[in-house]
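Lab meeting notes turned into a lecture example. A postdoc, R.K., suggested we walk through two folding results consecutively so the class can see how the record format repeats. The first protein's sequence and structure tokens come next.
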Amino acid sequence: MREGHNNVIYRQDYLPPPFWIDSVDLTFDLDPAKTRVLNKMRVRRNPDVPPQALRLDGEELNLARVLVNGQGTSFKMEDHTLVLENLPEGNDPFELEIFTTCAPAKNTKLMGLYVSNESFFTQCEAEGFRRITYFLDRPDVMASYTVTLRGDKTKYPVMLSNGNLVEQGELDDDRHFAKWVDPFRKPSYLFALVAGQLVCREQRIVSRSGKEHLLQVYVRAGDLDKTEHAMNSLMHSVAWDEARFNLPLDLERFMIVATSDFNMGAMENKGLNIFNTKYVLASQATATDVDFANIESVVGHEYFHNWTGNRVTCRDWFQLSLKEGLTVFRDQEFSQDLAGEASARAVKRIEDVRVLRSAQFPEDAGPMAHPVRPDQYLEINNFYTVTVYEKGAEVVRMQQTLVGREGFAKGMALYFQRHDGHAVTCDDFAQAIADANPESPLAQKLEQFKRWYSQAGTPRVRAEGRFDEASGTYTLTLSQSCAPTPGQATKLPFVIPIAYGLVAADGREVASGMHVLTEASETLTFNGLQAAPVPSLLRGFSAPVILDHDYTDERLLTLLAHDTDPFNRWEAAQRLATARALKAIRGGGEVELDAPFVEAMRTVLRHPTLDAAFKELVLTLPGETYIAEQLETVDPQRVHVVREAMKEQLAQQLFADFEQAYEQNKDTGAYRPDPVSSGRRALAGLALAHLCLAARQSGDTVWPGKAYQRFKDAGNMTDRFNALTALVTSGHPLAAEALQRFHAMFKDEALVIDKWFALQASAPDRGGNVLPVVKQLMSHPDFNIRNPNRARSVIFSYCSGNPGGFHRADAAGYVFWSERVMELDSMNPQVAARLARALDRWKKLAEPLRTAAREAIARVAAKPDLSNDVREVVTRALAD
């Protein structure tokens, strides 16, 4: 357990810092074994806080010197906290100088200053800066930074930090220095440092105001040809933020640096974003369409943080969604705007909702359930969650829905006018949006709306419709509820915007609008109707809720065929498929898809005007995790068997249609990762997978042969990997040869080999064959558990992404999980805690899996030197 930080922290206990740090002057003498850090700070007491000692956070540091105003001073250590009591009185600033050393080469946690591939990198969010120097390591302490880097000129020719490069030059002993000044005050978590042998793609741009800026993307030599898309995404991000929200780039230069050893996706350090290579490097030969889309989204996300997170930051870590939820919303809007046409925007929206429902809804229903703005934590790293990010984005989206797109832009402008340069709260943001739109439903119900920030759990909206034929009146009663979550037994009504339409049996839309549900139950009345309509509710997924309505198959088929809202059209298909899966799972018999369902899928597949991307979404069955969440008690292997059987039946009964879809969409011309081309490749890939699956049942060798030929001849990674996936998931013997060939082709491309590992670890489990493969992969020469990407590609793909293979009757999957959690915890607790979440929903499991899972969790919890990161997860999992 980490010393000095093993107590639960509560939001209600927040107090302002007793001291302010106005400026920080850091000098680094870079050495992998022993980096020297001289920290000169200008400090003053906070006059609003009673006089007290200055307590500075620090971890794994060697303290050499402490000076106050140039003189030695007394101090004491309490655990890893440096305590200074003999400080100047009054409110005048004083100079505090601290000299420490650290060992970046030994830093396997990848927090603070560490070495990766002989280069230096930092990761300071949330509490990594204390691993670099002693500091008030909290987000509400904002200071101006000057950073001087000194190091070997040959080993570290590139030395970067936040802000602007103001000076550089030669030193003795073949060393050199670079001095950086950040013109904006920032909290310590946004500090960044990079030094190493890197190459750079540069682009000069001119903003709308006429100012010139330098954009740079730094990577290791040999990867420069894979940075064009990242640079284009950055340019698009800069242009979009200025056009959509009037937020210009505020620095002379903006830098992105990629590293292969990184715990997260990327980090928004002011002006110097450090990225996982996964979200920077892409070429058509090595990256899929999904990779290209993810890079665009993540580059946008981190750039947008420049304003929503950096210029205005969090008062405390409980307010994390202030920046993350808002910035996820902004990157989603960015991707939708770049997608252009309505159908491509709808596809993006559906993809975002799939993530929310497959990952965040289960979190809301599990032991780690917490509000968008948590009330307590033991380890803040555990709250970088889909609730804070994705649900937080939905809360922001609802605010835009309630005030309108223009009203939201006005609210954003007021937010920055009030809070630029400050550390604030989620309440401050919501208040600004409401105050800019005083006549809006948000302003009128603001205090109630803010329950979205304070109440955990996913609300359920029950819809009941009645039609009176004599009067032509249709009444729709909407009621809301929310189940208890840990620490919150009772929930008050939310503000829930419900976009709706009423669709006649012949497909005509007879009514549409938006209703804001604020009471436990409300009734809407519609007059002048000729017949009972089909309600199309929660259009565009207008609120992050579960909708309960007794849809008949006939009504769902009407929505699938005619609804003008693409989201609800897709949702109708999902409901039809989920109902059939649940019936088969609960019934225990053989799966047999009915003719109306199959015919509906055929109609979508043959539809002359629907986009290929939309067809691919409709024809993709609900995921195993989503299906499992609809059950009270879950046998994951039964869920897996049923879903695979449904896929096989669709493959067989739509064989000719899949053949036609493949032939029509397989050729997309010169590679472009645009929505239309990507959608066609996605549909061709889905078709090929089903054709190979059908061939497996019939013994036909034609389509597996075509898939293997496609794999060999493909001109881009999307088509190649789709073909490889079709062979692996269908279990065809050609898969082994294709996997071997794929590795030989890309053995020097780490990100591609991650895909190779992940595909095998997440493959359908036939007879318990996946776990032995996973163990074999961990012995592969290319596997390195210390690299987070590689650990995720094998261990996470199996434990979190392969329910049918992980939840084994012999509990061997759980034993493997517990061993890996403890192994990772000893080197990188943050990654270990993420893995620990794989058994969050163990209480839903059928016996004997339930008991076996609990025993595995208890085995981890019993480890005496467990980190706070993992301890918090397993303790909450075991709680009643």
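The second example is placed directly after the first for contrast:
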Amino acid sequence: MDGAGVSMVQRERSFTRSTCCYCGVGCGVVIEAEHDADGNARIIGIEGDKEHPANFGRLCSKGRNLPQTARSPHGRVLMPELRHQRHEARHRVDWAVALDTVADRLADIVQQHGPDAVAFYISGQLLTEDYYVFNKLAKGLLGTNNIDTNSRLCMSSAVTGYKLALGADGPPTCYEDLELAKTVLFAGSNAAYAHPVLFRRLEEARERDPDVRWIVIDPRRTDTAAVADLHLAIQPGTDVALFNGMLHHLVWEGLVDSEYIKAHTEGFAGLKQLLRDYTPRMAAELCGIAVADLVQAAEWFGRSPAALSLYCMGLNQSAHGTDKNLALIHLHLATGQIGRPGAGPFSLTGQPNAMGGREVGGMATMLAAHREIGDAQHRAEVEALWSLPAHSLSAKPGLAAVELFEAVRSGKVKAVWIACTNPVHSMPDIGRVREALQRAQYVVVQEAFADTDTVPYADVLLPAASWGEKEGTVTNSERRISRVRRAVPAPGQAQPDWWIANEVARRIEARLASPGAAPLFDFDGTAAIFDEHRRLTVGRDLDIGGLDYAVLESQGPQQWPFPAGAQGGQPRRYEDGVFATANGRARFHVTPYKPVAEPVSARYPLRLLTGRLRDQWHGMSRTGRVPGLFAHSPEPGLRMNPGDAARRGLRAGELVRIASKRGELVLPLELSDEVGSGTVFAAMHWSGQHLSSGGINEVSQPAFDARSLQPELKHAAVRVEKAAFGWHLLAARRGDPLALRAAVQPLLKDCDYAAVSLQAEPGADERASAWLVLRAAADTARSADWLAALTDALALQPGADTLEYRDARRGLLKRVAWRGEGGDSRIDGLLLTDTQRNPTSESLLDTALSAQLWSGSRLAVFAHAGGGARDAVVCTCLQVTESAIRAQVVQGADVAALKQRLGCGTVCGSCLPQLAQLCRQPQRA
């Protein structure tokens, strides 16, 4: 493999070193592509890059399936589209027309209403170079700070906490610390699902040293919590009380490092005064845990030779997220557990390049290279580096995510440009986001995938290149910058995100710039953009003056800071005890516990928690293209404690209505003792592309942290009640799953509940054939026209290979399609309606999905006997089921034996925590 990462081999194949596009772990990958004589290319395979220091060849289930997300052009945006009137359909145009139109409309709005009438909402999935151009377009050319990002929804409280306590953004730790820590504190992080490759490293470190202890703080018994040495199942939102109670104990028992506090920090006296009230007993009562457990956590942390904290959305997505971050950092500062191997507060980034976006200042509350908008000197520095007139940068902070869409809704912001993100699914209280985009004068959506909930609102739709089709860099959770390389050309007329923003900027500049002004957007590629970004960082805390593409090619991924003359990046920060504050001292802050922003009430008595599934990512615009990734969780659901369900007369599998002050949705009920009494849980991934609703953010709350401006997405007060419907449908069809989903999706909204998933067929090539499964319910039977449209979408019209049963009086229809003849006959599709959810129909679906040969007469299909509960898939890589695993556990198998006998856990390892649970508790249903 040459320095550029590409070499041609036999069969016209290429292998390209790049980076995974999912979470902030930043795994290195090697992309295999196939090229034909006509210049066409497609991605056909992937392996973990064994030389990349983030993952050393490991990949999770999501990363291993990336090629399948790129194989089919179906659902990709292939040409620019625009419409002239809000209610007319978009039509395809060439790039010149699209770019000219966007530039003219934005320039007109700025000239008529001022620069703050325009806003940009971009994404932590953009590359650093993409981010840089967008930021320069908004702040340097248009003169507005109204540019925010979906990173506001995941990382801004961590950013604010680091800045307030340590003086600068950026974790002081590195991935090597995962192996060196002796006590690991997980706070609001289900790392087994959200950061599985790092979790593998932690598991292996604990296997090498059984004295390593894990403490997990989470209201749910997640897969991470289930394998912890101590699980603190606190009441939602009580993290600050817990950390204050732990620090009280550390102070009382003399386990703080007084010399470190005296030499390297300030403000501890004020915090100590507050801590007097947070006795372990009082804190434990607030948290709903045993006093002994709180004390045990404090003892393990305070006496550990190296304590590492790993935290994520459970802390950040809160109206008090900054205080939660600060209170956790206080534990490290007070014990000197920072700036040394295996120790420190480590915020795990949710998106692949949330940190790169912060580096270039691509958020409403910051300038490039961690500069502050409100600092006149910082603005002057950027003006000089961008060759802008003095005082041309706005000193007014921009609108952060929630405020931005409220300003669009109120008409204060006239135009919004959305790139590489899906706010109609991911923002809180999405009903108001829909209203905002409906009222906006002009909406630009820049997107790779046509099937997102935001695309229908676009006045202009711009086709963007996606993973495997772009060049640039990303920065991962340990401040490591990695190259992203193109393996294949983008399909159709799709272009890199930086190119699109740059071309629009050039056109606006021609209209708005002063005569003789130096051009701001003369970039000829991503290397030039990175070089300009690099120059802006010199002398700053994230100085990468010694880093460029050539160094990244020759030396591989590097951490910042990497100043000129350095031989490499800095793995850990603050090793000398000098922090990035004006006086070099870290700061303690007074952090009283505050109750959750929305308490439960008689009308809304349950606490709703949200989180991730193991094999899906964000809104599933990418993972939702892979049938195999639905195997572990094939249908959305609301998880409830069995006791709570029994008291409400609710049963597993029934449809329930979840309602808050803002909206409601219907989901099937799952019973699980992973959630405590009074708490329910729903995954955040399911969107309007898979549901008749927009997903769980129909009910989430828009309250946000006053300092970080990050919204409270993790917690809302809700009520749950049975949703009784008189008509139920189960339909499935084998074929091109993405084409089938696109055909069915417009019909979902006509049901009170509808959910679509994709399912792999054993042994089938998912590129050509898999299954689409649709479950739906409504108060009354759907009309004949609706059923006709559904049968057309699924190609389930009556025919020689189709059996049908109708009950006109009850409005019921049952239809089964077949493939093959005689003894080689299999079900190829089905559509079954009934007055209630029917286990017999589900059993018939299982038979179809398993590709079993049909034995006996086809006429017996509607009398198909139920086969019991579906066998859950635990290992999606090898399709190993729970029953197969339990059978081995009964025979005495441990995890090692399961790996040897069944192969589960030997490919990506994402199922290992669940295997450990099954081995520990084989009796659990």
